[in-house]
Write the structure tokens for this entry.
Amino acid sequence: MALLVSAISTAIGWLLARVVIKYQNVDIVIFNGISMIIGGTMALMHSYIYENWQPLPVHNWKYFILLLIIIIINSNVICYNLHGYLIKKFTVTYISFANLIDPIFASFFGWLLLNEISNYNFWLSLIFVVIGLSLYYRESIKLQEL
């Protein structure tokens, strides 16, 4: 149930984000910064209420700070701003559908780092996802031209 609520909330949130970014001319970086502060505060409150809370369970601070900086730059600075930029150019439905290529990256990194081999089911499903993405993109271009 929580996963369903999360998926619906995410979809509605990105639809609202597109409206604010595209039609209200709010800067993507400002929008992401405000949403990260609000989301982080809500996550902190939730963890305090529902978890056995120990605010600083860190033993190796240098390693923790290094990884934290890498995660912040990768996720919050690069990926979310890129997502906001793409939402300004494409529809939320298309961007969400394009997220189906995530398993490609998981498979690539599994092969690169763990020597995992993808079987024919993965490659067959990959072909269907690429075909679906291209069909959806072509139809959305036709609708924009009308």
Observations:
- The first helix runs from residue 2 to 23.
